[in-house]
Amino acid sequence: MNYLRSRGHGLLWATGSALAFAAVASYAAPTHGTLVVAVNQEPQDLAAQGTYKEINATGLRNVVETLIAVDPVTGEMRGVLATDWERVDGSTLRLTIRQGVKFHDGTDMTAEAVAKSINWVWSPEKAFTIQEYAGPGEITATAIDENSVEVVSSKADPLLEFRMTLGGISSAAQLDNSPEEHFDTPVGTGPYVFGEWAKGQYWTATYNPDWWGLNADDAYGTTKPAYSDLKFVFRAEDATRVAMVQSGEAQLGMFPSADECARAADAADYDCVTGPSTTYLYGRLDHSLHAHPVLADPRVREAVFLSVDITGIADLQGMASVPQGQLGPKGTIGFNDAVQPYTYDPEHAMALLAEAKADGVDVDALNVEVVGRDTTPRIKPIVEAIGAMLNISGIETTIKVQTPQEFNPRVRIAGYADEPNRQMMQVHVKGNPSGDYGLLLHSNYACPDINDPKGPSRSSVYCDADFDARLFEALASFGDDRNERMKELVQYVHDRHLIVPLALLDRGYLVKAGTEFTFGTDHRIQAVYLKPAE
């Protein structure tokens, strides 16, 4: 797996296997002060479930750790709070829990505490957003002895190990005694202890001198904690984050533009580091579920997709490539080489609309709302460009860029019923760190239940009984059989014009010159993978 480190100036590439760091044998207290990170949005929450979503809870893994993690250097799963794990059967995983670990409130991390945290995070009744990454069955956990926890899915789940890399483990005492504080005052086991969350401004954490990793030979990271404190400052404006790094106010700034990265090559005080990600930009078009009837006609849907110049959108996004007609890169289980990007053909789009109108479809009622979330980098010019492209084909549009508070409820099933006859193309970003199309197909295309808006497909706008039956068979399959089933389903949804993949994103950061920053395709910002400039 490729990753990047900043050593001086410009863009620097290296292979992880060649540059892996050895564990630090001895350790002194942090020699650097506060690491300030300019992030693109405020967390939705700081609950343990939020460790799966680096963009919506940037930096949380410094405080709340997971059982397993994907190593940013090798791309392989490695133990964090679990030292070992084994498959018992297709639906059961047994994990050995690291001994001698304490939560930041001083309580012991026991097998019982770990099981409680897993059950809390993955509870369907809690309906946390991590459910979008849940599998085909309900996940529960039980302590089977002092050192072991058994995690069970109610249905066979080949991705159960991966799901244990997502949810954080937090204090059982807090869950028992102050559960309301769990959402804004995280109590974990990590190398940093939560400090404060100044709403609308920043959140902070302080070095944990009792972190188990200081004395463990198998601790993760490329360095021991070098910063005394962490401060994540919320700045939605791209230019503001760039200015903070340029002025020295921040040592790291998220998601500069391609132009800003290019300018960093000539800068004296800061660099740009970039790397591939599993994140993609997409346009999800409302379907028959609570959508306007005009969008149920396949010719209309195809016309909308033919009107979008995908190559132009990827270029506008910057640091991105055109995806091969599906939501992920080659190497993903289920990747279908036969699927290609939708073509840009506004003339054919206009012909399809005319044909549909001649058959009595109310094409004159077509008015697509192209909407994005204001924390998505470069979203305003992107939605405006899509709107202009649709207009060329004769499709009327409404353009909106909304805050997360406005946008998020609208794109989940709980908000659909409030907007009958909707015609919305949601332009958004989402990642797939699992490397398996099962997760994507489940969360994006399985039919949601308007009366039970808690499950993995809460953001899906599609309902197809045949697809769902085939999907759930595929989700329980393993090996080559799983790969072939997923490939067929990738083709199936592509042909129905449900989601247009717009760009497969690289991610970039501005960093203080000389800083070494190691990250994988999931782009976690963790201090133990940041070696400060001397």
Describe this entry's structure for a reader:
It is a single chain. The protein is an alpha+beta fold. It has 2 domains: 2-269 and 513-531, D-Maltodextrin-Binding Protein, domain 2, CATH 3.40.190; 277-505, Dipeptide-binding Protein, domain 3, CATH 3.10.105.10. It contains 15 helices and 21 strands. The chain has helices at 16-19, 111-121, 160-163, 172-177, 238-247, 258-264, 298-306, 310-317, 346-358, 379-392, 404-410, 413-416, 437-445, 465-475, 479-494; strands at residues 2-4, 13-15, 32-39, 68-70, 77-79, 82-89, 92-97, 139-145, 148-153, 192-198, 202-207, 227-234, 252-254, 270-285, 320-321, 367-373, 396-402, 424-431, 499-512, 516-517, 530-531. A hairpin with a 2-residue loop joins strand 6 and strand 7 (92-97). The longest helix is centred in the C-terminal third of the chain and has 16 residues, at 479-494. The radius of gyration is 23 Å and the shape is globular.
Task: Provide the descriptors you would attach to this structure in a database record.
disordered N terminus, 534 residues, 4-stranded antiparallel beta sheet, alpha+beta, Dipeptide-binding Protein, domain 3, 11-stranded mixed beta sheet
